[in-house]
Design a protein that fits this description.
The protein is mainly α. About 60% of the residues lie in helices and about 0% in strands. α1 packs across α2 (about 60-80).
Length: about 120
């Protein structure tokens, strides 16, 4: 019977999260950029920074259109993927009221059933 020697070895990078990979370029080296952002995102970020610091008048029509399209796409994606914020305040309020009414009705039915059971027991 063979014995296996168990060894725990760490070949990662200190501070890296499990399952997160760093982007590697064609040269085999890790690429720069904010967490592997796409070139479109990097360009939009640059345009956004310029617009915030110097105003939108410094951007060309094409640059402004690119920034606007990127921001719209990000907003649409966020709206489509958010699950918690889909319920309106009115719907949440109605749900709470229905839950309270259901609890009251359940208590009322239980009370009536208990009263009938006690009355039936006392008649015997």
């Amino acid at each position: 019977m063979e014995t296996l020697e168990e060894t725990l070895a760490h070949f990662g990078i200190k501070g890296m999260k499990w399952g997160v990979r760093r982007p590697v370029g064609s040269s085999g080296r890790v690429e720069g950029g904010a967490h592997g952002s796409s070139s479109d995102a990097e360009r939009a970020k640059e345009y956004h920074t310029r617009a915030k610091t110097q105003g939108t008048h410094v951007l060309s029509n094409q640059e402004l259109q690119h920034l606007t399209n990127r921001l719209n796409l990000e907003q649409q994606y966020s709206r489509l993927t958010s699950t918690g914020s889909r319920t309106s305040k009115g719907a949440k309020f109605a749900k709470e009221i229905l839950a309270q009414v259901a609890k009251q009705q359940a208590a009322k039915l239980a009370s009536e059933a208990a009263t009938k059971a006690v009355a039936a027991t006392l008649k015997k």
